[in-house]
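[job 4471] stage=fold_predict status=RUNNING
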Amino acid sequence: EQYLANATEVGQYTIDALQEIQARHPSIGAVRGKGLMIGVEFVKDKATKEPNEGIRDMIEKYGFQYGLLLLGCGKSTIRLAPPLCLTKQEADEGLEIFEHAITLAEHEQGMR
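[job 4471] inference complete, writing structure tokens
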């Protein structure tokens, strides 16, 4: 029960933070999820929503280089599925690395 409450609270906190990150990054087409099971979809263009598998793969690689294990799913989505005991501080640490990886990948693809 404690973990369920934490997943709800920290999950919403994380989704809100990801939506702020989405506003700063042209490669993020959608953020969706429930609790701590969250998907971030990467696109070539926000208007057409054309999937961008290449940048998704780069973000996974850069995340790993900086200590964040990410899992791709579907065509161009990264699935975030941290433990249910994740704290807001831990979420912030992971989100900082995640955004850095997105920035590096966008630069590599000439999106910024």
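[job 4471] summary: The CA atoms of residues 88 and 111 lie 30 Å apart.
[job 4471] exit 0
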